[in-house]
Amino acid sequence: MAGATTGGGNGANGGGKVISLPLQYFCVLAAVVVAVMVLSLSFMSPAAMVAVRQNISSVAAGAAASSSNTTTAGAAAGGLAATPAPPVARKEEEKEKAPPVVLFNFGDSNSDTGGVAAAGGIRIMPPEGRTYFHRPTGRLSDGRVIIDFFCESLGTRELNPYLKGIGSDYSNGVNFAMAGSTVSHGVSPYSLNVQVDQFVYFRHRSLEMFERGLKGPVSKEGFENALYMMDIGHNDMVGVAHTPSDQWDKKITEIVGEVRQAISILYDNGARKFWIHGTGALGCLPALVVQAGKGDKDAHGCITDVNRAAKAYNKKLSQLCDDLRFHLKGATVVYTDMFAIKYDFVANHTKYGIEWPFMVCCGNGGPPYNFDQGKPGCGDLCPPEAKVVSWDGVHFTDFGSGLAAKLSMSGEYSKPKVKLTSLIHGGSKKTSSDP
Fold it and tell me: Is 390 in the active site?
């Protein structure tokens, strides 16, 4: 199997930080995902934390307009009459008049589409991005993340990160997600409250441009009809799981309270359609499973306490969504149980054609884990077509993200049971003339 390319910077390609795959995944990300919260997990070193704190401080917007053809008729009668456009042409006109799909996403590395790479000036190297984009994109995957599949399903291009200035087009929305982010304030530089502040700033400047007669990225109607997605809390809950269990309820209540405040601010700024993800089965992450003792695991091999903390968070988050559904007038709030989706990939892995549910694609040592804690990198790299869910022990492969996206968009794991496409094209749609 092919190993990871470490790369280098010289000549025309010089400048910036060139991050090798081992440093990228096992320092920049594993450190933030776990150590920023608990600073105690054994697989993170102090040097890795230093690396994290140092590093973490397409153009395709034009829509072609089609014109209806007119034909000359009744020449013998001495007049010119425009015939009605054929049905196909009328459908095309209606499609052109439909408002564009606009999305705003708030999250961490599970939905980061290159934000942390842009913010830190990090040039991530192959084999990241190899399966779909065929080049590194800043996603912590060999291909797409879940939100990319959402965009594809909704007929819009992938969301550009907020801090990616070169080549970005924000006419279909913005991705504020950043790897390592938390809900909790002050733990990560781009915590949820900062991401929401960035959105408020973006909205203000965008509307200001329209008021000045300039072409802004998103109109007032675009903001009002947009879908606001949230996939964050994973890093917080790994940290909570490594604290005394009698403190969990208080900590989780505080974290969910921050989510409430974030959603309330978005609502006050015109948001009406919310798609909220619960956290996944964190106790099934290979990077954590390989460290746990046998007595710490459930019947399927996942870490019991970590999953118990994730479930406790999801319960309170679901209750919050129920409450907001009642109190936020005119809003649609959909909660999706990502724990059930991702846990099923382990508990019933053969149903999905998965042979090794804890197998890491980019790792070392071979099955059943391919995750050697003392040897980071891609010494043993799975084939691109392999049905392996985990890319690096923490994040999903393109294959895994595709599975999760398909199930989450179906509405079967959501409350209320609403399909993603139905929400974006219906729900609490309003126009800028509404109060």
Answer: no
